[in-house]
Amino acid sequence: MKVPQAGAVAAVIALALTASGCGGGDEDQGILPIGIKFDQPGIGMRETGGTFTGFDVDVATYVAKELGYKPEQIEFKQVLSNDRELLLQYNEVEFVVASYSINEKRKEKVDFAGPYFVAHQDLLTRADDASITKAEDLNSKTMCSVTGSTSAENLKKNLAPKASLLELGGYSDCVVALQEGRVDAMTTDNAILAGYAARKGNEGKFKLTGQSLSNENYGIGVKKGEKELQRKINDALKKMVQDGSWEAAVKKNFGANYKHEPAPAITTG
Known about the structure:
Radius of gyration: 18 Å
Helix content: 25-40%
Oligomer: single chain
Number of strands: 12
Mean pLDDT: 88
Structural class: alpha/beta
């Protein structure tokens, strides 16, 4: 089943009318639908040929294993930043592992397991641009982020209120806009930006400014009220840290030199 794109609310609701229970009808067939990003190198990426790579993919696969599912029973579905809650509410996915920062506004609509990773908001600029060294430098410039992201809101509210903002559907679109000179910087979590900068073909084109503009605690989103699923996912995350799989996944996807926070303590559930 193809994931509806942003704005196709009617299609999602129509599908929801035929679904019941957590995960709709897929679970009865032994299929586990999981929402991930398809365009975030190092986090969640759909590669040529239909395979999936990234830290969130590894976390989702590990959690699925602990829930009793084999890799071939997983159906990864694309989620965008502004439709994660919608897909959970209408049972299109069982849970969402998609650089999904936990915050109070989102907790009104969904429940979270985790957190399982801590990232920091940063800026990505062109490698030859020396005019942006801090967030305040964006006041006279244009930045890019994705629709539904908290990153641009944080910058506009607290650090660069006079910056111009271009919101696009995906981070890969922002990378293209940055490379073409239509924007001066893009902003989101440093783990996502590092993945784009290191992506094959992008080497030497971009640089991170090294900001820590926020603390982003990634959680796994589940439908509101699914406390038993939330508990099981939390148990799986704890086991992933304890057996070394979490650290191995960080190094595999972000590189041995990536400076990451230790695995955070589980605070949900």
